[in-house]
Amino acid sequence: MAHFQIENLTFQYPNASRPSLDGVNLTIEKGAYVVLCGRSGSGKTTLLRHLKPVLTPYGKRSGSISFDGFPLEQVSQRDQAAKIGFVMQNPDDQIVTDKVWHELAFGLESLGTDPKAMRLRVAEMASYFGLQGWFHLDVATLSGGQKQLLNLASIMAMQPEVLILDEPTSQLDPIAASDFLNTVRKINIELGTTILITEHRLEDIYHSADRVVVMDGGKILADGGPRQVGRQLWQQKHEMFAALPTPLRVFYEAQGAGDCPLTVREGRNWLTESFENRAVSIAEPAAEPAVTECKVPAIKVREAWFRYEKDSPDILRGVSFSVPQGSLFAIVGGNGSGKSTTLKTLCGICRPYRGSVEVFGKPLKSYKAGQLYQNCLAMLPQDPKSLFVKKTLRADLAEMCHNREAILEMAESCGIAGLLDSHPYDLSGGEQQRAALAKVLLTNPRLLLLDEPTKGLDSFFKGKFAQILKGLTEKGITVILVSHDVEFCAEYADLVSMFFDGQVITTDTPRRFFGQNSFYTTAANRMSRCVFRNAVTARDVAALYRANLEEKA
Known about the structure:
This protein has helices spanning 44-50, 77-83, 100-110, 115-128, 144-156, 174-191, 226-235, 246-253, 264-274, 339-346, 393-398, 404-413, 429-441, 459-474, 486-492, 510-515, 523-528, 538-552, and strands spanning 2-12, 21-29, 33-38, 60-67, 70-71, 84-87, 162-166, 194-198, 211-216, 219-224, 297-306, 316-324, 328-332, 354-359, 362-363, 377-380, 447-451, 478-482, 495-500, 503-508. It is α/β, with parallel strands linked by helices. The strands form four sheets. It has a six-stranded mixed beta sheet, sandwiched between helices. A six-stranded mixed beta sheet has the order 16-17-18-13-19-20, with helices on both faces. Strands 2-1-4-5 form a four-stranded antiparallel beta sheet, with helices on one face. A hairpin with a 2-residue loop joins strand 19 and strand 20 (503-508). Helix 3 (100-110) packs across helix 4 (115-128), helix 8 packs parallel to helix 9 and helix 8 (246-253) runs parallel beside helix 18 (538-552). The longest helix has 18 residues, at 174-191. The termini are far apart.
C-alpha cells in the first residue's frame, strides 16, 4: 500500500492567473526516497504543503489525496501530526521553545505522550543526532545548521512514517548541508521512513533517490530513476538539466561513453578509465591573471574587530581586505564564521570597536545619516521577507521608485513581471528572493551587498541572476556577496575570499582558490583532479575532456 496517492490534484491561489498545481498524479510508496525538483514557482512547495493538512494553503482545489488508503482529510489530527513529519525551509520558522531539550519534547508533549516514554525518546533522539553537547543550550545560540538538525530530531522523536523536507539545506553551508542530508538518508535506510524531499542543490541527494520527480508549471514533467530522468532532460534540452549533479552534466556535455556517473566517485572513475591509455596533453584551463592590489578600492577594511555585546566573544577578529571597484567579490566560509556580520559592518549596521572601514575612499563614519544609502550602497539581507512591507509586490517596488517603466523593466529582468499583483508572502522562496533583489536594485546603488542571494533560486534563474550581476559590474557597480553556493562563486566571481574564525584567511581568483582546496571546493574539482588541474566548473571539465580527445584524434 502506498503512503500517499495523489489523483488529479489541481490548486489555484486566490487572484492567481494560473493554477499552481495542474492535474498532478503521483504515488509515494512506503519506504521510498523521492526527490522532488523543479524551477522556482513550479509548484513543489505547494504540493508538499498539501500533504500536511495544517500547512495546506488557502485557494481553489480539486482532486484527491489519500494517506494509507484513507482520504487525507479523514485522518485524525493526532495521526497527521505524529505520522507526517515536515521540515521547513527556514529553521527559525519551526522552532517554538527556548531550550534545545524543550524543543525535542514539545511534539511529544502535544501528543500527550507518557512522561517516562517521552524522556526515553528525547534521550534517544539526542544521542542519535549527536545533540548531547548542546542539549541544555538556548536555541537562540545555535547556528543555522544546528537549528535545522534540531528540527529534524524533534520531528523524528514522534516516530513519523513519512518525512517531508522542503529545501531544508537552503541556509546551510556546504559541509553542514552534506551532513544534514546524509542524516536524512540514514533515517530512510535504517528506520525505513519514507522520504519526500525538494532541493535546488541536488549534488548530495540525487544519486540516493529511488525516484526523481521533476515539476514544471504545476505539472509533473518527468518521473523515474535518476539516470532515466537525467537522460530524458538532456534529450529534451530542458532548462532543469542545468540543475542536475555535476558528474551527470559533465558526462552528457562531454559526450561521454559508457554508463552515466551520478556521484563524484563514479565521475572520477569514469574520467580515470577514459584517460587510462591516453596521455593528457591539455591538463588545465587557461591561466587566470594574478591578483593585484587595487589602487582605488570600493571597500577597504583595516583590522576591524567587532562583538555584539561587551562581554561576548569577538565575531570579527582583525578583518582586513580590499574590494576592487566594478568587481564581483565573493565571501565563502562556514556558518558562524563572521561573513554576514562583515556585510553588516560594511553598511554601518555593526560598528567595529577597533579598525576602520572605507567606502569609496571615504571613512564610513564620516557619511551623514542616510547619505550612505542614497545611490551609494544597498544590501539584500539573508531573509528577503524583511524587505516586504506592502500588500502587493507592485506596491513594494513602487516604494523604491515612482517610475512605472523602470519598475516594469526591473520586474522583467528579475523574472517577476507576472507576479506584481501577488502578495509577497504568497510567493515561493525563490520568487521572494528575486523580488527582493528587484527592490534593492531599484535604489541604483554603486555598491551592492548580497547575503546568500542564490538561496532558493533554481539553476535557470541563477544563470540569469549572474548575467544581471555581470551587467552591473560592467557598469562599474561593485558587488560583494556572501554565499554557501561554491558552484556559483566558482563560475561567476572575479575574486573569492575565505572567512574563518572571524578573519579573511585568503583571497584569490576562483580557479586558484577552489583548485587548491580539498573539501571546500566544487564537485567538478573533486571529480576531475585525478586527471586535470584547476578545473572547478562542469564547463571546465567537459571542455578539457573534449579538447584532449580531439588532440588525440
